[in-house]
Design a protein that fits this description.
Bound molecules: zinc ion
Number of domains: 1
Distance between the termini: 51 Å
Shape: globular
Strand content: 5-15%
Helix content: 25-40%
Number of helices: 5
Order of helices and strands: HEEEEHEEHHH
Length: 159
């Protein structure tokens, strides 16, 4: 498991600020979510990275918890922690978290909403974000934040 953990975290780039997302920068599938391949006992299993991160943080089996919610709405984010700074939680923590998020939204600067996008656009956004961070880390931070916010950084400004 330790080897898998090391392999996992080598594919994640954490943002520079306290509440930033931790972004998966390797394989992204057509659903816009990452894929992490586990190899154990000669068997390979593809898992979603945010689920693997949650499994690591909480020490529960990968199939031992229900659907996870991204508070940040970034499908590539794997910031699962057992503390209040987590970006991921399971179903019934949702109400608490939404409340916390509503109160904290101004401070984390993240008003993005990827929901409602067509699946293809959703996947394209994930891949564009993944490519940027994989190649440049968070060095071009304005660009990364624009992508996180769902803004095309190459589009001309309208104002
Ligand atoms: Zn996040």
């Amino acid at each position: 498991m330790t080897r898998d953990q090391d392999r996992f975290w080598s594919k994640v780039i954490k943002g520079p600020r306290e509440n930033d997302c931790w972004l998966w920068v390797r394989a992204v599938a057509d659903d816009g979510y990452g894929r992490f391949t586990l190899n154990s006992n000669g068997r390979t299993q593809a898992v979603r990275p945010h689920r693997f991160a949650f499994h690591l943080a909480y020490g529960v089996d990968l199939d031992g918890f229900g659907p996870l919610m991204h508070h940040c709405d970034i499908p590539l984010c794997v910031r699962a922690t057992t503390t209040a700074d987590t970006h991921l939680s399971v179903g019934d923590a949702r109400v608490n978290m939404l409340d916390r998020q509503a109160k904290g939204r101004d401070t984390n600067g993240s008003g993005f909403r990827w929901r409602g996008l067509a699946r293809r656009q959703f996947a394209e956004r994930s891949k564009t974000l993944r490519d940027e961070v994989r190649e440049h880390g968070w060095d071009r931070e304005d660009r990364v934040r624009a992508l996180l916010a769902g803004v095309d950084p190459d589009a001309p400004t309208l104002f």
